[in-house]
Amino acid sequence: MIERIPLVAIQAAAERIAASVARTPLLPLPLDNAPAEIYLKLENLHPIGSFKLRGAGNAMALAAAGELAKGVYTASAGNMAQGVAWNARQLGIACQVIVPDHAPATKLAAIRRLGGQIIKVPFDRWWQVIVSGEFEGLDGIFIHPVSNRHVIAGNGSIGLEILQDLPDVDAVLIPYGGGGLSLGIASALRALKPKARLYAVEVETAAPLAASLAAGYPVEVKYRPSFVDGIGGKSVLPEIWPLARELLDGSLLVSLDEVKRAIRLLAERQQVIAEGAGAAPLAAALAGRAGGGKLVCVVSGGNIDRKALAGILAEPKS
Fold first, then answer.
1. Choosing from 52, 157, 187, 235, which is the catalytic residue?
2. 290 shares a domain with 195
3. What is the separation, in whole angstroms, between the first and last Cα of the chain?
């Protein structure tokens, strides 16, 4: 079971990775008739286009040099893979990545560009690697994309930055894939601003946290692949569940159409390119599901397939 990450660990992670990650901006999103005062935490502006550089960098910085000599590997639909591959290239070590068979071409191309070796497997096999934390036949250190405490601490540095830029934030909306991003940010905010509302955001086609919170225990849901490839799974990881239930105020569900509208709005009004997971928090905020006040939407990444983005932008506004 993952326990709450201590504030000192998150602060140490922020210092450790400061030289290799962007200090991403928190920008207001001026909209007429918006249900709240919305701000965007632009994690898509990192060198790899995703927040995953934070957690991967912290975990690999804390690994022993002898362990790193054999290389690293991870399981990822694309963004964590890039975070691990980017850091592996900086360290001059090998990197292998297990990806699901529906991983978008844009993310696969980025992994290869960064020097990562791709191992493509069916989604169920890939999900089993996430659950078990191992893949037979590979050497090196496995950097779990979700359940590694050092990864979660690195992700928590986002929470510190949000509070530095907007101390009176009322709520933070966070894309929920496996929970590593949500728990990192929540660990920081619960320590420094415990009254802030903290929401996971899931897409209706794959929302195990919402189903589990409704049931009161972890349940498995049907997973339907979509262009929103950075969040969603079949179930809440057992080691994540107790802390997610403790730290988060709920899971907000958004539809694929709502995510598309958020992607178009970000591109047209702010010149921001967001992938589906990154636009999901804004979709929830625009729908009024997080209530009012000062809301921060974590735009977790911008690595969307070019064809998917072109199709979304070409759709008529609704």
1. 52
2. yes
3. 43
